[in-house]
Protein 1
Amino acid sequence: MDRNAFRSPSPSLGRLAATLLMTATLAACSGGAKPPAAAGEEKKNAQADAIPVEVIAASTRPIAASYTGTAALEPRAESQVVAKTSGVALEVLVEEGQVVKAGQPLVRLDPDRARLAVAQTKAQLQKLENNYRRAQQLVAQQLISAGEVDQMRYDLENARAQYNLTALELSYTTVVAPISGVVASRDIKPGNFVQINSPIFRIVDSSRLEATLNVPERELSKLRPGQSVKLVADALPGRTFEGVVDRVSPVVDNGSGTFRVVAAFAGNGELQAGMFSRLSINYDQRENALVVPRAALLEDGGEPAVFVVRDGKAERAALKLGYDDAGWIEVRDGLKPGDQVVVAGKAALREGTAVQVLQPDRPQAPAPAQQAQADK
């Protein structure tokens, strides 16, 4: 028998066996109970399953029923000034942007030809007046017939009409403003030859402005003269102007299915004709309406509804809605004051989904300065 077979293992083999034994022991320990930190992590994961949402409490506030639309402002009165006779413009007395009064001279045309015509017809008129006076004396003496006197009277009246016509033509050489307002445009310069009936000025009366809305016929019973109108103009951001419904057409257009509503506004120097405006006509008011933001309504194509947070879960609440005013919706049935309505995060919710409210809607604590003032 070989004596080497009974020799003890070499030192290197012993160290290898010890290393394998330690590795097996560590592996067994790693597959055992989880440390305390892992349990806390599982709890966090469970909380993470809740959907984060933002809510707002259903509350009461005044709300108005209104019709809104857009229109351009137009002047109540506007005149295109034309020359009623022809002639050379000697003087142009006003400029664009100038305020004028009705009857104020705007342009003076060359009056020489018109003055000569007046002088001619005046002389003819005086001659016929003298002849008629002598004829009246002669007819009393039966020296001329009554028919001749009647002819003289006819000629006299005709001459008087001609004289008045030439005097009128002479007055037309001074072009005057037909209405009071602002000169919006001027199409004439001194020295221009002006043709009869040619437009030379445009005058706009901006003391009263109007906006015309074409309103659907379903609103016909709700709108009437005297109702309050609010106007916001794009050219004047941050400003709101008050007006009234001036006229309501009682006739619905067959083609468009609309009727005309004209709102009137005072021209105070800020509102100008031509401004694009947004109008709101309030036709009803509720002082203590229960409301929620429009953003809270679900957009799933079904009946009006919102998600309400109760006991940490989302519950769908069907609503009966009322008026819509400036982003707020009146709720006539389905909620009560104080209900926490989801306004952000609702797209991920289903009935019974666990939720985590990020910003509960609750009364805000007063600022320190306010609290100190209240304590005094």
Protein 2
Amino acid sequence: MSDSAPQQNWIGSHQKSSAPYFRHIFQREGKLKSASLAISGLGYHEAWMNGHRVGDHVLDPAQTDYEHRVLYVRHDVTQMILKGPNCIGAILGNGWYHQDRVWSHRKRGEQSDEEGKKTEQRVRGMSYGEPRLMMELELNYEDGRREVVRPDSTTRWSSGPITDNNIYSGEHYDARLELEGWSEPNFNAHLWEGVEQKAPPGGRLEEQTMPPMRKIEKITPQEISPKGEGRYVIDFGQNLSGWVRMSIEAEEGTEITLRYAETVFSDGEINTASTGVFATEVEQIDRYICRGGKVETWEPRFTYHGFRYAEVLGWPGELKLDNITAVVVHTDVPVVGNFACSDQRLNQLHQMALWTHRSNLHGIPEDCPVRERCGWLGDANLVTEYSLWNYDSKSFWEKFLGDIETTRADNGGIPCDIAPGKRCSESDANPDWAAAFIMLPWYLYERSGDPKVFGDHWSGMVQLMAHYENKSDDGILKGGYGDFFDPGSEKIVSHTPQVLSTTLWYFKCSIVMAEMAKVRAEIKSAERYQLKAVQISKALERNFFDRETGSFGSQGANVLALAFGVLPEKEGQIQDALVRDIHERNVHMNVGVMGVRYILEVLTEAGHGELALKLMHQNTYPSFGHLIERGATTLWECWGEIGHDENHGARSLSHPFMGGYDNWFFESLGGIQTDTAHPGFKHFFLKPHPIAGIDWVRCEHEILQGKIESSWRVEKGVFSWNVTVPKGTQATVQLPVSGEEITAMVGRHSYSVDLPSRTS
């Protein structure tokens, strides 16, 4: 395959078409050695060759800021090339490139007239332009000849059966308009029209190197409820992202409508409120018109949905289980982590975190798969670490760092709250959300050992730190979102002042920048950032720490202060204040998404693992158990404040930034911990924390060198532990109770420790 980028030779239809079809005929002349297709269809494309799909990708290519960079995909098509005439084809969908329906206008009454004009200018026109196609086929013959095939004046296009498609609102398909055999060489295309040359989108071409989106698995309905003639509500039993595939035999012209929702009302009717209709002004709806005469199987191509329930309207006869399937669709990141234990609540919460994360991987790390589908930086910061424990997602997050770069390029060097895309594209990110631009490279470096990941973004990170310093006052940095979605209100509230949580992140970023500067051998920079961290620490103590209570004033602030090591000499007091507050609230968390990320690890490291476990078993509001009892199979955007049973407010029911607790399973219960002095797992720590009430834990993490294993069991007061250290690595093993440290070389090792009396 070629290593060079294809030429930016873009074509399109000369008039608007919801999803134009393209075909190009070429001749193969000679014995073929290899053939590769480089293709980018904006917004999304589906490639075909001689009547067959090319590859198994869906929703290609991933979203970017198209005026800065455009991703193309390369396929090996050697086995698909025929002798003689061949046909290469493509279908274009609107995707994000031509998303002109949602977030494209100002809501009336949102701001004053003067401010409103600014907002209207900022959000109008989410579309980058009409869909367009670039494809280049490289043929390498055994006699050494190389031939490049590109669209030209002989390339033809036609409209087809996809009569409407939008990322948010769904896809409409009229099977009566199907073009059977359209991508075969002998198809009669005399009614098709010539293509039009299109201007390049503006961005540089880059090959898509992260895993593509694919159809991952199928889920059969858990329940089908008749709701009247031709109408059914289907419960798939799991909130997911993707679409419905249906199989039907009906008369020509029969129209089937699919409406998607995350939840239902008490009478079983679907409730679309949590999908954000109030903001998008559209529902998730697919429509299919039957061709008739045979069994027809259909699923959409250029949209996806967040849903657990689907309403089917217009179905002829009885809807059966084998007529309907949910197809799970997301970026196909390989699984590298596994956690299971004797506690089924923890297993359930682990799976909920994974389902929520998977449901929000569509080329970018989304906040939710329904209302916004945006790459909010703060959300990414809270998700990246547990993503890396569970999936080989390094290239995914590297791509997202590139997205942050393109947003800051248009914003004076400072990241925006969201990347990529045109929402919030002309305003500085809140400082606590912008911290992701510094933290993500560090997370990736810890696990890969490759300093290039932060070297590529170093100048931008330095600029962001200078921005923080300019905005700060004597070490205090104002602004931000706060701990975000603390319990207590259906609105966004925070028991931790925004200035406090933001300044805590300012401290953490300074520490991380100092460490990265050391790796880069920039000693003066490292000293400067370390000094800045000391100054911020003193400012935090001076302005927010209560010496009498030993507290920063909230669970969230205390958790972040402990996790970041802000006041090492005061940690005992802060731990006591945190534990005291939890007990005063009858063993409940009172934190938002930042506190959720660290609270369990902070408690467990301080010797309060049993309290952490009780928090995870709490079933009354606010708690994860409370959400589970209300039917949650993914993590909600908020704590499900009382009173939302019928409407669930306007909040999403699939928000991965609530899943930061998943790190606890790997780092505290399994005890697998990175060593920042020896990144890339050249050396790592194994420090599990047995907790009364948990009888066994099995934790595995696959790295480049092999599989790390930490599995333990407690029987009759004896802690039995098996560990595996891969070749090319070394581990320091810390035994529970005694704290004795042992150097574990390559191979499998077993340890046994008598535990003191345990209470459940």
